[in-house]
Structure formats: structure tokens, C-alpha cells
Amino acid sequence: MSAAEILLLRHGQSEGNEGGRFGGHGPTPLTALGRRQAEAAARAIAAEGGLTAIFASDLPRAMQTAAPVVAATGIAMRTTPALRERSVGVFTGMTFAEAEAAHPEIFRAMMQRDPDACPPEGETSRARAAHVGAFFDETVETFGGAGRALFVSHAFTLNLLLRRLLGLAESPTVFFRTDNCALHRLKRSAQGFWNVEALNDRRHLVGL
Fold first, then answer.
1. pLDDT computed for residue 145 by the predictor
2. Which band of pLDDT confidence, cut at 50, 70 and 90, is reported for residue 2?
3. Which residues have C-beta within 8 Å of that of residue 5, sequence separation ≥ 6?
4. pLDDT band at residue 35, thresholds of 50, 70 and 90?
5. Is the model more confident about 122 or about 137?
6. With b meaning 16 or more CB within 10 Å and e meaning fewer, what string describes 96-131?
7. pTM over 0.85
8. Domain span including residue 144
């Protein structure tokens, strides 16, 4: 097993974020601020150098965030539904208050981070964790491990992935703050151990 460096990047501010609405699998795009955040992240990642692969959720806000990195590094973007945010079904586009009023029991279970809570027409966090975890494991191994890969995804999905990597998958009360266009940085040693280099790194966003 060879070493690997992984960058986990949340998308920039979306119109759904700005309006306090559930994004889910919806097509909400980046705001003007979100686009500036994506450009700042791209400059920082390109300046560090060494990037060898870019994987992104196929939702618009994630692809729009990855696009400046592609432009700055010349590395092609590979999109996949495996990196999507959790589907929240009928809650998509609703504010939290609207979702609570429509389905109070399900909303309460989701807010309590019940891994089996499922909004109507949506998916459980347990199912989303399985999807992203399987994709991540397969990609890291196929990718060869010796490079530096960027995964552009969403706050909840990145939390599920981090909890899985850190052995906290069964600890729903643990939540890693993941701001728009913040980076989590991890390195895997040749022995297969994951080292956390930084969580919610926002240095490149100062001044925005």
C-alpha cells in the first residue's frame, strides 16, 4: 500500500445555502460569493501543486466549484453521483421551518441524526454513507495511492466520509464543521494509516 494525499472540498455558497434551504439533489447553483470562494480555493490548490486527480459530485454547485480548479491545473474533472449530497426527497428546496411543518416526526429524527431517518422520496444517511464510502475506497485504490486527489462534495456527505475514515461511523453526535469551500486535508501513510492534516481549512478564504 502506497501513500496518498486527499483533499476534501465543500462546494462554494449556493443559492440554497444563502436562502437557508435544503439543497439535496436539487440544481441550486453557486451565488456570486460562492463563485469567488471557488476561485480562491482553485488558486490555493494550484499554488500548492502536485494535484493528480479531481473527482466531483455531479450536482451543479459542486461542478461549478471544481471548474476553476480544472482551469487552474489542467486536470480533467471526473463527476459521479456517489459524491452527491444526501437526497432529502420532498424536502429539497424547503426551508427548515417548512420541512418541519410538513413532516415534523421525520424532520425531528433527521435533526437528531438518526441514521435510518428517511424523508419522503429521499434516502437515509446510512445509505449515503455506504455509497460515498464504497466510491472513496475503490477510487483511492484504483487511483494508485501515490498521488494527490481532490474530492469536491457537500457538507453532510463529507461528514459521513470523515466519520467513516476516523472510525466514528456509529457516532451520529459527532459533526465536523465544513464551511463553504473549506478544505479537509488527509494523508495516508505507506502502512495504511490516515493522518488528519487539517479540518475546515479556510485560510484561502480570508477577505472574502
1. 59
2. low
3. 50, 147, 148, 149, 185, 186, 187, 188
4. very high
5. 122
6. eeebbeebeebbebbeeeebebbbeebbbbeebbeb
7. yes
8. 4-87+124-205
| Rounded Cα distance, 112 and 60, in Å | 28
Tens of pLDDT along 139-163? 988 876 568 999 999 999 999 999 9
**174 in a structural domain:** yes
Q: Which three cell numbers stand for residue 136?
A: 472513496
Residue 42 lies in a domain: yes
Q: Distance between CA atoms of 65 and 73, rounded to whole angstroms?
A: 14
Does the residue 93 lie in any domain?
no
Match 478564504 to its residue by C-alpha cell: 205
Place of cell 479556510: 202
DSSP letters, 178-204, are --TT-EEEEEE-TTS-EEEEEEEE-GG
Cell 436562502 found at: 19
In a domain? residue 130: yes
CATH number of the domain at 177, please. Answer: 3.40.50.1240
